[in-house]
Amino acid sequence: MQQLFKPSKRLGATLLTLFFGGFVLNFIMQAASLNLSLGRVLSWISQYYWLYISGSLFFFFVLLTFAAIIPNVYSGALFAFLVCCILAVANYKKLSTTGEPLFPWDLMQVKNAKEMTKITHGMISPAAVIMAVVIVAALAYLAFKLPKLKVQLPLRLVMVAVSVLMIAGFIQMVGGQSAFATSMHYQNIPWNQKVNYAQNGFVYAFTGNLNQKLMEKPEGYSREAIEKIAAKYRNLPDRGTAKPAAEQPNILYIMDEAFFDPTRLPTYTFSEDPLKFIHQHEHATPSGYLLSPEFGGNTANVEFEALTGLSMYFLKDGSIPYQQRIVKMSSLPSIVSILKEKGYETKALHPFDDTFYNRNRVYPILGFDRFTSEKDLQNAERFTPNGYITDKYAMQEAVRQLQSSDEPAFLHLVTMQNHFPFTKGLNGENTITVGGVKPEYKDEMETYVHDTKLTDEAVAYLSGELKNIKRPTIVVFWGDHLPALSSGIYAQAGWDQNPRLKHETKLLYMANFDIGKSSVGTISPSFIGPTLFKLSGQELPPYYKLLEKVQSEIPGLNKNVLIGASGIISQLTPDQRSLLNDYRLVEYDLLEGEQYAKALLF
Hints:
- The protein is 48% helix and 10% strand.
- It has 23 helices and 15 strands.
- Strand 6 (345-350), helix 16 (359-366) and strand 7 (370-373) form a beta-alpha-beta unit.
């Protein structure tokens, strides 16, 4: 052994240091999952000590792996320690901003590190940045000053092999919910990931999510079950479908980033109405609220519902279908593919990086023929050089693409203007004063309200341009989720504990032909498509008849709140449970099953 590791006397001390480092690292990870509360961490360790010990051993082997791979033992271990600390910070910030912990599939966004830096700018305080720089400098100094311990190749290979085997065994133990893991009080809780991370610890929860399916196989799933569902809804009549337009209409989806009506927040006053046009126009056209499945982030999940008609309600907590499943599929039925079969040109427009949420790979799977992203919009308008492309410019580009289409077009626009951070001056000088807001939130609140005013002006522009488009055109405009404003803003307004209000965004239908003016109430994104088909007089496929039936009973389908025709549903009826079971079976079939429904319901 002395020939393999020099000086051999330091081997024990080195391993002991790494062993202790594993316990420290696991403590840091759990503190990040428990809002940096020392008392809660110590309480967790006392209750789940075996999870803490075994999780710490996992980190020990991670440190040992890097110590063996990088010739200088301490440099390798310090590098691994730093990477894990960065993950802890990311977990803490994501929890404090969106209420969700860090998932394995979130790491797929590492390839967008440059863009993520822009998006998250302002989320971390200058003091935290300074502290991070100091810590990194200290670790670099340690790596430089500590003895240059080098392990010879044979022992390095042994260390790597043992560590990889132990890490792989741990992952297998956790992923398989083995009896040994259960004996240590590990319980996978995929339906509530915040509890999952708080109870099991970061390493167990994160590892348990590595091979997580979107949903488990429902009882009774079979081809025969899907055939019965298809027969049931295929023969249903279209309910209240409008008179068809003279020719197939253009359809424009506009999912506006972080847009909601801030004037709904009580306790605050505004020097002027930021949504003048929308508030004046909403009574002359179908409008209402969208019950978003998300809060503060995860835009792709709202988009997933709106395009596919499938619901996040049935999926495991924390799921992101674009990244976990759809990107691996060859095709998935959607409003895009339905309209494509009707002869529509299918286009997507997103004035940001095309690889975010794998959109560049997911969109073709959903049926899009063309995707215009930020790289295709070199001269796009921004209010400031560091700002996002404006909503108005994005809508101008949408109008240009609709007008250039020889065939009816379906265009899906996802905007970026109102994305976090709400930095004063990013979209020009604030023009609205907000009263009643605490001083520490005043700039943030007034910046966001100013941004919504800019969006309102863009919608007013679009409304005017609709008159100049020769082909009948119908627009659906909605906000994807409420913005990730400081929690104190929502708490002061009394919204912090109100799941319905925290998920309701603005929803507006507009057209250059008569679509009526009836309110659509509060609906989930899954029901945008069927509602649009009815308003534009298009025939509903059997799948949309199923969605229409669900919408008639439970128009707002959200894990936090269920909304029925007459308000919040406290308990489902047997008929509603049966209806949701049909919906669940079809969703499983399309996402995880054999896709029998593709030929039967579309």
